[in-house]
Structures are given as C-alpha cells and as structure tokens.
Write a structure and sequence with these properties.
20 helices, two-stranded parallel sheet, 12 strands, alpha/beta
C-alpha cells in the first residue's frame, strides 16, 4: 500500500515540477535557508548575504501601508521606535497571539520600559495562545479584515509559516536595526524570518539500569521505544524528520552508522537497502537512504506521548529503567527532587563521552507583524524590545535550552543566569553547553523552513504513510 501511495505522490510531484519548469505560476519559497540562516547567523554573527546583483538591478518599488512602516522602522533605534509606539498606542489595547504564553509575561515589562520615556503612558493588552495548532487558522481568518485584531505574532513551525503565512503575505518580517547590527548585517541584506530564539529538544535516557545509548542509531535499535510527542500533535517534530533528509544531516547519520559495531550494522543494513529506491525516487542525496531508514525505524518504534512534561516526569523516575526519549531540554528545570525522582536518574545522551551522531533538534520561535496590524509601530517596538534587550528576552532566557538569536542578548542572559553551570556539580545534566556547542559537537539538527516547505509534499507525505508503534499490540 505504501508503495502505491508513494508512487502517486511522486507522479504528482513530477507533474508539478514539469509545469513549474515550463513557466508555471508556482513561486519559489520566500525564504532561502531560513532556519539555519537566522539561527546560525544570529548565533555566529555570520549573516546570510543577499543577492546583491539582482537587488541592485531591480527597479525600486514604492512601498505602501505596513511595508512602508516596516521599512522606516528598520532604520530606527530602540528609543526612536519606543517614541513611535507611545504616540500610537497610548491608552489603547494591544492584542498578540503566539505559540508561547511568555509573550504575556514580556508585555508588562515592555510597557514599563515605555513608561521610563513617558510616565503617563498606559496600554492594556491581551495575549492568546491557541491550542491544537489553530494559530494558523486564527491568523488567516484575521487577515481577511481590513484592520486586523492582532498586532503581531510569536509563532513556530517553519514549514507552515513559509507556506501558509509568508508565501500568502499574511505575515510580515521586521528586522530591528540593533538586532541586525549585533549580527553583523543590515535589515536590507538579511534574508529569512526573524527568530526570537532557538529551542532544543535533546535525546535523554534513564540511567538506573544497564542500557547505554552511545550512538543516535541506538534510539532506533531493536526493542527501543523512545518517548516522543507524535508528529501529528507537534508538527515541529515532523519538520525534524524531514530535515534529516537534507544532505548535511543525512551525512551525519551515515557517519554515525559507520561507527556502529558489526552486529548493529547487520540489523540496520536491510532497512537501509530497502530505502535506497525511495531515496532515489524522492531525489535525495548520496546518503538519503540512511536518513529514510532512521526516520522509518523512528516512526515505527517511538512511543507517542501528549506532551514533553509527562515525558520528562517519566524519565527522571527511578522506575523508568532503561527508557529513553526526545524532549525539550528545559523541562529538566521543573523536576522536583525526591527519594525516587531526580535529574540524576537521566543522562543527556550528547553529553556522554563517546556518544556519536545527532544529539537532538532545534527549532525557532519567530516574530512577525500581521499584514493588517492595528498597531504596527507598537508591534515593531515590542519585537525590537524582545530581540534586542535582556529584559525583553528574559521570560524565555531564564531557562536553559532556549538561545537568543541576538549574540549580545545571549551573552547578557548567560552572565545573569549562568546556564552553563545551572546544575553545578550536583546535577550535571542541567549544565547547558550552549548554542555553539549544540550546533557543532552536539550535532543539533536545525529546522530550515524553506527546506521543509520544499520537501513537505514529497518526504512529508512519505512520512505520513509510515506505520506507527502501538504499545501492547
């Protein structure tokens, strides 16, 4: 059955490709290399270069409405934006919507900042956090109004942002001047979405038994059923799997496979060989079969959970002998130590000597204005406040495993909270090694919205037809 479905998918993909190649109306993704661009560029201060030749030759378009406001705002300092916000929103109500409830925590701090400039300033606010991935429907519905309800959004899932929000012009990227400068670029040169932070989900395992996980392939080895939020309940998990087929990460999987012993290689080899034809059909690179084999075995075997919190609570209990999972790193912050529950009952796989292969995956919270924002200047100022000041980022920065996309802010956060020694000698698993370590030695797979959007129909549909593990059957 899977082969028939895959054949249909690939046939349709080839038809679309042919039409596009012959001058069809299908447009290219708006952001190229977006996740690795904002996340990597923001953390290493190496911003992606714009296509200068094409930009300089194109006639200058006269911007109007929200686009004109954003263009002007991108030339202004934080204080200049603040004054514009005060003028625009004094005495009004600001409506925001996001995947993170912490936007609600950042808004009163933002208002306090504006009051240092104008003590008479007041602004009410409401922050909504839609459940079950309804944020895309909510923003789409709001975009149909001449003036929207929501001024801005904090949103995740680069694939759907690209295809449903950016390609459709519902959301608008604003790049604060001071954020761009901190990353060694300019708003005009910067390409991609504006990331507030990169979050990481990492492989962990209970260490109270004899099981060891020294290679990322161990998590899909015979008898392993890692705890994981299902790809249908949290779409960034599906983006992670799709990203594994990108050449860089497929190569990481091949290199990890090469370091396995002969027994484990013999176990995985038939699946890898089986996947070779699919890898060719899907147009993947030289190591695509290794990526598809890992994905297939992961989906066939992970034990689906509703949320990362319960996964963490399970793994840190002494009774969870030899169990493993892939979950948000920051969940360790809320573990309450007891006789049977302890952070010391788990190991972060990538922190262990001799561990090989991917240590987890990273995805961003992105910030956008809505195309019909009722308070665009205030939205720009709020976005700049969150991305360019430690106080604005603090609702997220107080936890390990969430890395500001502004290197200056990231440094201030570490100086204040000392996440690298968050657990000290007592709880070494909580000593965060930081973004630079995770994206190099830790082999963190980074979500790229443009790539996910590109392969969502082909690879994504291939993932959709894989069999899922059902405990007890």
């Amino acid at each position: 059955m899977k082969k028939k479905v895959l054949s249909t998918i690939l046939t349709f993909t080839m038809v679309i490709s042919a039409l596009t190649g012959c001058g069809g109306a299908t447009s290219a993704p708006a952001a190229t290399d977006t996740q690795s661009a904002p996340a990597d560029a923001a953390q290493t201060a190496e911003a992606p270069a714009a296509d200068a030749a094409q930009t300089s030759e194109a006639p200058a378009a006269e911007l109007t409405g929200i686009d004109a406001i954003i263009a002007e705002a991108e030339t202004m300092s934080m204080e200049e934006l603040a004054k514009k916000a005060i003028e625009e929103s004094n005495g009004k109500t600001f409506y925001g919507v996001g995947n993170s409830s912490r936007g609600k925590s950042a808004l009163p701090v933002f208002i306090e900042y504006l009051q240092t400039i104008d003590p008479s300033y007041t602004m009410e606010f409401e922050w909504q956090q839609p459940k079950n991935n309804k944020i895309f429907e909510q923003l789409t519905s709001d975009s149909l109004k001449s003036e929207g309800t929501f001024a801005m959004t904090l949103i995740q899932d680069g694939n759907q942002i690209q295809s449903k929000m950016v390609d459709t012009d519902i959301l608008k990227t604003f790049v604060p001047k001071e954020w761009a400068e901190a990353n060694g670029t300019t708003a005009d040169a910067y390409e991609g979405f504006l990331p507030l932070q990169t979050l990481n989900k990492v492989f962990m395992y209970n260490n109270t038994g004899s099981a060891t996980y020294t290679n990322c392939w161990d998590f899909v080895y015979d008898g392993s059923h890692p705890l994981f939020m299902g790809v249908d309940s949290e779409i960034v998990g599906k983006n992670f799997l799709m990203m594994l087929t990108e050449d860089k990460y497929a190569t990481w999987l091949k290199e990890a496979y090469d370091k396995l012993d002969d027994t484990k290689k013999a176990y995985f080899e038939p699946t890898i060989q089986e996947m070779q034809a699919d890898a060719n059909d899907l147009g993947l690179g030289a190591n695509g079969a290794y990526a598809l084999a890992w994905i297939k075995l992961w989906v066939n075997n992970y034990n689906e959970q509703t949320d990362d919190g319960p996964i963490c609570n399970t793994l840190v209990d002494a009774s969870a002998t030899d169990q493993s999972g892939l979950l948000v790193y920051s969940k360790l912050r809320s573990v309450e130590e007891s006789a049977t529950v302890s952070v010391n009952n788990i190991n972060v796989a990538a922190y262990q000597d001799g561990y090989t292969g991917i240590g987890g995956y990273g995805y961003c919270h992105y910030l956008f204005l809505t195309k019909n924002s009722p308070l665009p200047w205030t939205a720009c100022a709020f976005i700049a406040f969150m991305t360019c000041t430690e106080a604005g980022f603090e609702p997220w920065g107080k936890d390990m495993g969430g890395y500001s996309a502004n290197p200056n802010v990231a440094k201030e956060v570490e100086e204040k909270f000392n996440h690298s020694q968050g657990g000290g000698d007592e709880f070494p698993a909580k000593n965060d090694r930081g973004y630079d370590w995770w994206t190099t030695d830790g082999e963190l797979v980074l979500e790229d919205p443009a790539y996910c959007s590109e392969v969502s129909f082909s690879v994504g549909s291939w993932i959709d037809v894989l069999d899922h593990y059902a405990p007890g059957e």
